[in-house]
Amino acid sequence: MELLLATLVLGLVQGAVNALLGAGIVAVYRGTGVINFAHGAMAMVCTYVFATLVDHHAPSLHGIPLAAVLAVLVGIALGVLVDVLVMRPLARQSALVRIIASLGVLYVLQSFALMVWGGATRSVPQLFPLGSHPLGPLDLSNNEIGILVVAVLLAALITLFYYRTRFGTAIRAVSNSRDAATLSGIRVKWVTAASWALGGATGAVAGMLVAPSLGLNSYILTLLVIQAFAAALTGRLENMALALAGGLGLGVATAVVGTYMQQWLASHPLSWVNIGNVGDGVSFIWIVALLLAWRRPVATQQQQQGAAAQGFQL
To answer: Residue 103 maps to which CATH number?
Structure first.
């Protein structure tokens, strides 16, 4: 029973990070229609900035580490730069072209990180103070509690921003139709830049939260984009609350599968099997299941439209 509880807590913590990364993908997609596969690489660069500033003993401001604030600002600036230099010139191109462009950004950021910080895995200090709090038979660390609280709080704030502010309404208008939004007086360029900035900021926060437990190199956070995409896809790349739920559910599923598969393999001749990348496998299955679940309603809708067209022709 204790093993199951510990696995669930571990899954919720990892799921909260998935949800934060997924929130960044949703933020970019809602304002621009671009699926940003470079999101994990952007988070990686911001986390390297945070770790470097901590190494140089950056001070705190009213209890808030200045290194974390500057890393978030770097995420915002990086998001705006990607929008202005890469995505804005491709605004009229197909979605496939822009997806390929995001993969190009991923490659550039990963190469930049390798040149500046090298390829060795390094440790990253956690944002929250050391310590733990008992919860039944378990001890929850301040870092685990902080990750869960930050994920839920940011998801709620971003949702309120989209539905309770004029700028959030403008973002939804641009996601529906850029041309119609332009004709209605909305500054589309400001909206897309803000969407990329929001995505960069959430990625920076997620990277700083997860790096203390996973370590940091140019690959670890970059590849987390697979799990982030699975979380974002749960909300159809638009619903922030469903993306949060999907991230948490995916984290729990990954932790349960990883823990019990490891136990089963240890007691069988297949103990040599490495399940270190089980998260990517579960995420892939999650994505395929979502696509298959959505296929039937879409097909039904197309059949209804075809029947209506035939009736009109008769």
So the answer is: 1.10.3470
